[in-house]
Amino acid sequence: MADGRPAVIRARPWAVACFLLPALLLLGALVVYPIGYSLWRSLFDAPGTGFVGLDNYREMFANPAIRRALQNNLIWILVAPALATALGLIFAVLTERIRWSTAFKLVIFMPMAISMLAAGIIFRLVYEADPDRGVANAILVSVNDTFSEGAPWPDARPRPDSGLEPGPEESLVATEPAAVGEPALLPLVGVAPPRVADAGQAVEPEPAPDAVVGVVWLDFAPGGGGDPGVVDENERGLPGMVVEAVRDGTVIATATAGADGTFSLPAEADGAELRLAASNFAASFNGVDWLGPTLVTPAIIGSYVWMWAGFAMVLIAAGLAGVPREMLEAARVDGANEWQVFRRITVPLLAPVLAVVLVTLMINVLKIFDLVLIIAPGSTQPDANVLALQLYFSSFGTSPNQGLGSAIAVFLLLLVVPVMIFNIRRLRQERKG
Amino acid sequence: MATALALTTACGGDNGDDGNNGGGGDGGDNGGSVESSIELPDLSGERLEIAAVWTGAEQANFMSAVAEFESRTGAEVSFVPSGDNVATFVGQKIAGGAAPDIVVLPQVGVLHEFAEQGWAAPVDDAVMEQLNANYAAGWRDLGAHDGEQYGVYVKAANKSLIWYNTTAFENAGVSEPETWDEFIEVARTISDSGTPPVSVAGSDGWTLTDWFENIYLSQAGPEMYDQLAAHEIPWTDESVTEALTTLADLFGSDQLLAGGPDGALRTDFPTSVTQTFADLENPAAGMVYEGDFVASVIADGTDAVVGEDALVFPFPAVGGEPPVVSGGDVAVALAPDGEASEAQMALLAWFASADAARIWAEGGGFLSPNRELDTSAYPDDVQRDIAEALIAAGDDFRFDLSDQAPAAFGGTTGQGMWQALQDFLRDPEDISGVQEYLESEAARAYGD
């Protein structure tokens, strides 16, 4: 057979040309021509009329936005494929021997069936900062809340110069020391009316001969009015507020405000410092700012891994099926534990498959676009920028410059080339082997 | 109501006669005409295509004004949505030899670009006559390039408005502020009452540029504003420092911004409006700043009723006069290779007429720069007040600075003004850093 083919080519070259022509035409029109034109276009300015040489490439590396995109692409290519492959490997090995493995694999593989755009929208919601809407923060907040109790008055704060100053942590310290016979007035503001609906009218307590008394209240009557620092009609107490008397840094007495905001401390608190405990105010944990400038890229990589770990798992599981059982058994008989079997036998035998998965994902990650466009909000989009997205904005955004866009496209192509060469080499070796 | 009816019957009857008059032959007596403010030629069999960004209800409203043109002239007009990037859209169409006849542009910079490239056609005498009769010089000049009139401003936006939740104001017992100091004081009081006072859409850079422009216009004055818009004074100028310092009164305070600066940076424009008006018992924010179009977001996204739960006051005066920053859409006739047709000019003249503005205004969600429009045409009081404020400003309004600037500086995510002001919202202490960034970006975008 090997001898037959050249004979045909020699005898009827036109037949060969005929057979090759459709493929050549398609490849030429859809691959070679666009690449060539992009190269050509990247040497011209925005309107496409003036030749600028390599200026677009220079601009590309001088532009801070594009440099940022390059940096993010680097993070992506180092982290995302490795993470997806590692997770895929773990899933594949773990599911190999469980009974419902097919069902399990199906579930893991399912995200692959979703378009990038839909996945982007899903994760935009998952990462929503408001714990009532974003499931990621909802989980964090509910876990946090099981271990620590929320403060009763997180919003309450003093007016400036109202006799309360910020103390250690988030506590508030009264500027006047406690005194028997002189009720302490501790006014706070900033609490929304519905939150004090259950509280009673605030009352200024009568001076007591044998106790330090005072009132903690919301110094703001709904509808305005009322004098600052004075308990007016319609102003509510702040029940449950913990008041501490502190002397030389140690708490000597504690009291809790009643429904009308009044509290009473024993007489020995006389002369001590009055402090509203930090536990009253500690701002409740509101989750993590997933889409903020620092976490936005890792967060998007997370959503990518969610999509592609299933792909990695399926390929690796297929490779795993080809690993000879006898070798694993032999190792076990020789006294290797499961970790050693995995580390020394399974992984080396799977290496070719792992390489295929890793390289495929690398190529895929280089052109990542949709997830970043959809998940990153406007204010942090520059922090999440990647080359493909920048290509799009440069070419088709406001003030389009398709010369610069083409230059980015050519650069992306150059980035893919080494991975491609690696892939082709590997394929050749496999054929020889 | 009676006049409106009389008008429509009169218009219907005019159809046949108008054909004899021709487009250019209109006399000067039109302005005085009681029945119709414009005479149009017979254009039976003519086909026109309009491209604009509008979709949905906005498009339907616009088309109702166009439908009247069709019935008066017999021309057929079709609508093509252009997508957000009108310049690119038109460029492609012209390259393909199928340019729309009329295009409506949201950025004044694009008009200049089109005029320079010879794509746009100058208006004829009939259009000029309508413009002179109905438009303040300021609005006319915005549609001109190098002394030649190219465009007709068909729609205006008043971007000097602050919308507020009446519950929040009642709870705090405050009233509408008139100066910036009063505004900050009102915001503090609202904060004391337990409602986060100001909702800022930091995720959308354009809302931040509008904040800055209002403050700058009121504080530094219209002349400085024009110079800054043309980049004749650098962004490192002291007046910019002053405006940013003023803005930092608000942006630099955790208590005055709903969600603090970080929360504001996560908030996009629709959310900034809905969070202010969604909960009428215990609002998540008391006030939100943006143009007249906030009304439609309130109507679409919340149960609040504009005029009852949601009211509006003019942007407070920072310097002597309160600012009037406006935006708008300009209709331009495209004639990339040759003269514009009679039909194109007739449609532009129609857009410049009070009749067209009245039909469009009745549909709501629309503000006309046409000063001859009887404001009773607006469907509600809030819109009428906004429109009257805009017309009353006469020539003292200024066009949105970021829309005048090159798009790379004034209208692109991640660069120029948008990025600079987001950085400023993140760190309001670093005013000089923001100014240096603005100046370097402006130098690049303006190409000097």
* Computed Rg of chain B: 23 Å
Report Rg of chain A: 34 Å
What is the count of β-strands of chain A? 8
Integer average pLDDT of chain A: 87
CATH superfamily of the largest domain in chain B: Periplasmic binding protein-like II
Number of domains of chain B: 2
Q: Report the major sheet of chain A.
A: 5 strands, antiparallel
Number of domains of chain A: 2
CATH architecture of the largest domain in chain A: Orthogonal Bundle
What's the count of strands of chain B?
A: 12
Q: Report the portion of residues of chain A in β strands.
A: 5-15%
State the helicity of chain B in percent bands: 40-55%
Uncertain regions of chain B: pLDDT < 50 for 5+ in a row? 1-34
Order of helices and strands of chain A: HHHHHHHEEEEEEEEHHHHHHH
Biggest interface, which chains?
A: A-B, 34 and 36 residues
Distance between the termini of chain B: 56 Å
Number of helices of chain B: 21
Q: Share of helix among residues of chain A? A: 40-55%
Instruction: Name the structural class of chain A.
Output: alpha+beta
Low-confidence stretches of chain A: none
CATH class of the largest domain in chain A, named Mainly Alpha
